[in-house]
C-alpha cells in the first residue's frame, strides 16, 4: 500500500503557482458552504517523521478561514487526561458541525509509536487499531466527513530532509534528539504502517507522495476541496432518506423484563431507616476507599416519569461529601450539543480520578425518548446500541466503576404519583404536559425498555432493575447494589 506513493511524483514550480489561486478559491468556497451544513470535517495526517505533515497543515491554515478550522496535535497525556479513558481527549477535540478539524497524527501516533519501540506486541497493536477503526466508523455513521492522508517518503528522502533542516540555522531547532531516534527506526515504523493502513481502511486512507512539497500540497488540498463539495451535494438527499418513524413492530421482541418484576416488594418504615443508615455508612467508606485508589464511579439512573430517580439520588448523595460527587441532570440537548456527536455531551462530564458522577437520565435517551418521539431516525437509534456498549466498555476498561439503574413503577402507581404532585404545592413544578403525553405511550416505552435491556445488559455494564412501587424498598436496593458493585471492584 505504501508503495503506491512513489517518490518520483512531482509538479513543476510554474504549474504549482498557476494552480494555487484557483484551488484556494475553491477551498474557501467549500468552507463557506460547509459553515451552513450539518456535518463536520475531520482531516487526519499521518506519516513518518519529516514527511511534511506539519508543513501541509500550516499551509492549509494559511489558505482557509481561521474562524472555521482548528488544529490538534497531541503530546503525552496530561494528568487530567490520564484520569479519563484514553479517547476522552479525542472525543472533546471533535469539531462541531460546519467546522473543520485537522489532526497531526491524531489517535494514530501513540499506538504506532509504541509498536515501533516494541512497547506493545503485534496483537496489542492490532487491538488498538481495531479500536481506532470502530471509533472512526462511529464518527462516519454520525455524519462526519473523515479524510485521512498518509504522507509517505522513503528512508533516503527522510534522511536528506533532516540534514537540510539541521543545516539551516532557522530550522535546526526542529531536529530534536527524539526526531533523530524516530528516523533511526524507519523500518520499524514502516512495518507498523502497513498493518495500520490495512486495519483502519474502513474509512479509506489516501497515500500521498511527500517528497515534492508542490505535489503534496496540491494533492491534499484538491482532495479536501473535492470531498467537501461532493458531500455537500449529497447531504440533502441523505437527510431526505432518513426515517424518523418509530418502528417497534419491525424489531424482534424479547421477553418483557419489566412485567417479570415483583412490584409488590415493600420495606417497612422502621426497617427502612435501619437499612438506609447501614448502607449509607457503608457507601461513604467505600467511596473514600475508591478515592484513595483513584477509582472513579459513574452512576446512570433511568426510569419512567415519577419513578423515584430523584429520591434515590438524594438518599445516595446524602452519604457522600459534596466535593466527591456531581449530579448531571439531562434535558433536551442545547444547540452546542446538537452540533456534536450524540455522546459528546456525556463525554464532557466524565469524572476525574476518585470522583463520582451521577447522570439523572443519560445516553439511553437516544433509544428511549428520542426513538419513541421521533427525534432520532431509525438508523440513529438502532446504531446507538453498539455505540453505547463500546463507550461503556471503554469506561470499564479504564477502571471506572459503572452502575446502571432502571427504576420501574407500574402504570397505576405512576397515575397516583401524578395526582399527588398536582395537589401538592411544592411538587407541582415536577408535572408538565409532556409527562401526561408520555404516559399515553406507556406500551411503546415499555417495549423500548425491553430492547434496551436486552441489547445493553452486558457483562461489563449490567443493568440493575429496581422495583420502585415502594419508594423505601427502591432506595435501599439502589444503595445496597452500589455498595456491592464498589466492594467487588475495589477488592478485585
Secondary-structure map:
Layout: H1 13-34, E1 41-47, H2 53-63, E2 69-73, H3 79-82, H4 88-93, E3 100-104, H5 109-116, H6 122-141, E4 145-152, H7 155-167, H8 177-184, H9 186-199, E5 205-209, H10 213-240, H11 269-292, E6 297-303, H12 309-317, E7 325-329, H13 335-338, H14 344-347, E8 356-360, H15 369-373, H16 378-397, E9 401-408, H17 411-423, H18 433-440, H19 442-456, E10 463-467, H20 471-491
Parallel strand pairs: 1-3, 1-4, 2-3, 4-5, 6-8, 6-9, 7-8, 9-10
Helix pairs in contact: 1-10, 5-6, 5-9, 11-20, 12-20
Report on the architecture of this protein.
By secondary structure, the chain is of the alpha/beta class. The chain has helices at 13-34, 53-63, 79-82, 88-93, 109-116, 122-141, 155-167, 177-184, 186-199, 213-240, 269-292, 309-317, 335-338, 344-347, 369-373, 378-397, 411-423, 433-440, 442-456, 471-491, and strands at residues 41-47, 69-73, 100-104, 145-152, 205-209, 297-303, 325-329, 356-360, 401-408, 463-467. It has two domains: 2-240, P-loop containing nucleotide triphosphate hydrolases (Rossmann fold); 248-491, 3-Layer(aba) Sandwich (Rossmann fold). Helix content is 52%, strand content 12%. The strands form two sheets. The protein has a five-stranded parallel sheet, sandwiched between helices. Helix 1 (13-34) packs parallel to helix 10 (213-240), helix 5 runs antiparallel to helix 6 and helix 5 (109-116) packs across helix 9. The chain is elongated.
